[in-house]
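G., the chain you wanted modeled:
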Amino acid sequence: MLTLAMLTRKQAATRLAVDPDAVSELITSKQLPAVNVARDPKAKRPTWRIRPEDLAEFELRRMTGKAPATTRRIKRPAGKKSYF
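Predicted structure as tokens:
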């Protein structure tokens, strides 16, 4: 389902009661899903838009203390090799 009313970084920051730079950090750490709507995807400064559903889900995870939906990479111990 396509949502037309997407939130800006500043709007999300106001709703979360944090600084807009903190929202950017959440986006780059993949804790908060967002879409880069800049004309050039390789631009120096991305223009992020956040779906209200994604922000509501993030707030719920934040309130309940559940782990984020993203998976974390686990480093293998040194010296151990895996062939699979």
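Residues 9-64 form one domain.

Shout if anything looks off.
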